[in-house]
Amino acid sequence: MSSRVVVALRIKAPPVRVFEAFTREIALWWRPNSLFAFTPRSPGVMAFEDVEGARRLVERLASGKVFEVGKVRVWEPGQRLVVGWRQATFAPEMDTEVEVRFEAVEDGTRVTVEHRGWDSVPSAHVARHTFPDSLFLRRHGEWWRDLLDGLALAAADRQPGTTGEGQA
Amino acid sequence: MAEGRPDLISAVLYRDPKAALAWLEKAFGFELVFLVEDAEGNLGHSEMRFGAARLMVGGEWSDDHKSPASVGGKNTQTVHIQLSDGDLDAHCERARAAGAEIIVEPATQFYGDRTYRCKDPEGHIWTVGRNVETVSVEDMERRTGLKITGQV
Fold first, then answer.
1. How distant is the Cα of A18 from the closest Cα of chain B, in angstroms?
2. In angstroms, rounded to a whole number, what is the distance separating the alpha carbons of residues A121 and B38?
3. Domain ranges (residues) in chain B
4. How do residues A38-97 score in pLDDT, each as one tens digit?
5. What CATH number should be reported for the domain whose range is B1-61?
6. Which residues of chain B have a CB within 8 Å of the CB of A120?
7. Which of B2, B36, B40 sits opposite A137 (nearest CB)?
8. Which DSSP helix (H) or strand (E) runs through A145?
9. Domains B1-61 and B75-152 belong to one CATH topology
10. Mean pLDDT by 10 residues, chain B (152 residues)
């Protein structure tokens, strides 16, 4: 799992709040990208599911089917989250992983996403769209940057005492 | 809150760009915001943030892209850091402690900025400034004998 994309952003909300927004409210800020669709029927609605302590990230499709993106490997609210990340076309030996770190800084949270393991997906695989490796990773990183922008808006929006509180 | 990217971004080249990312954070407090590494751990692309500014940090990715360490220490451009808060001298001490070579110690200039100049481990020259006094154009001209047009 050596190839990786790292994207970081400062968000004006405390780590516990940003973690909550990242997990419980993922459907609100997620921005699907057709280049990186999980399934041919995507996009659906993203969710972290918790079934008797077994947490996983899923995409709920319009058909009613639920696609498991990955199992949660580390769940430390306000600090760290690690989750598997697979597309439907991945062969069994292909696996990528997303680690999200939530670090308290003076004006809120520095949230860092590290997406690693793309070297397990061969360069000719359909998920890579014939992009050279570095360009593919860069595009994927740019998508994460968009996603964190959305997360930042969602996390700052529902803090107690802000103007977002209580609004629809 | 979405962070837009500025209209102008310097790209600074290093023989060892991954070491540079760590050094720039330690010395100047820049923060990594974007990084792509391939399966061999080679850096593909990276960006750091400082205030509203961005800096790209890269390797010597073509024959025409070289670190000063590969061309006898020569610089053809330098990057200036303008502090909007904090203490210039403390900034200098932090850089020194991280291994920067201070080539001009902190001093207050006629235009009202306190500045210093240093080299990083691969020989890039960095200038750092912090405004400490508001000086009128008339005062600048009186202090230097120069004719000054325009104002920043």
1. 12
2. 12
3. 1-61, 75-152
4. 999 889 999 999 988 899 999 999 999 999 999 999 999 999 999 999 999 999 899 999
5. 3.30.720.120
6. none
7. B36
8. helix A133-157
9. yes
10. 75 96 97 91 91 94 96 97 95 98 96 96 98 88 85 64
